[in-house]
Amino acid sequence: MELLDLRGKMCPIPVVETKKVVDRGDVNEITVVVDDDAARENVKRFLQSQGYDVSAEPREGATYLRGSKTAGEEKDLKGKSKRIAVFISSETVGRGDDELGAILMKSFLYTLKEFDPSPWRIIFINGGVKLAAEGSPHIDLLNEIATRGTEILSCGTCLDFFRLKEKLGAGRITNMYDIIASLAEASVVIKP
User: Is residue 76 assigned to a domain?
Assistant: First the structure.
């Protein structure tokens, strides 16, 4: 049983440190102690993505995340269907005219909804997070895409920067580690 006490560490450090231990390959049980809400959610998702059953126990101003791996749950990307990640870093497509770029983005997102196979993940960073926040004309479309199994991820640092964290209207908040891992796991990355 591994124990990682990562209290006082901000994301992505708890995920990175957890990954170092998990990557050794000999860890069937792990407990990670965190005291940050984002770290709790991100470490939990990471452990689950690696085949661990995870329980969370709040205690003494921290959360103890206990992960147990069952034999045969190792992730194997061989034989899985194509994973398409879409990486969106602005509110518009291309450079030149913002009005045209906004029209192109609307068309791009609509086409994604109709595209087969559906994207595995749509990742929003920088100004792109505005597309997934309240007030965006694309919220309903993004939620419709999500109902087809696509994960909608928005950078937490970016949402904080634009003061939109509490106004996320589609998908969930993520971190840079999760973004890089998603891009690395994708078989295809599309950037409009």
Answer: no
36, 37, 8, 33: which is closest to 21 by C-alpha?
A: 33
* Sheet containing 29-34: order of strands: 2-5, 29-34, 62-69, 52-59
Show the domain range for 145. Answer: 84-190
pLDDT digits (tens, 9 = 90+) for 75-86: 444 445 689 999
Contact of 159 with 172, CB cutoff 8 Å: no
120 with 53, same domain: the answer is: no
Predicted TM-score (pTM) of the model is: 0.69
Does residue 128 share a domain with residue 38?
no
- Express as a percent the part of the chain with pLDDT over 70: 94
What distance in Å separates the CA atoms of residue 174 and residue 11, rounded to the nearest whole number? 10
| Same domain? 186 vs 121 | yes
Q: Name the nearest CA neighbour of 62 among 43, 44, 42, 36.
A: 36
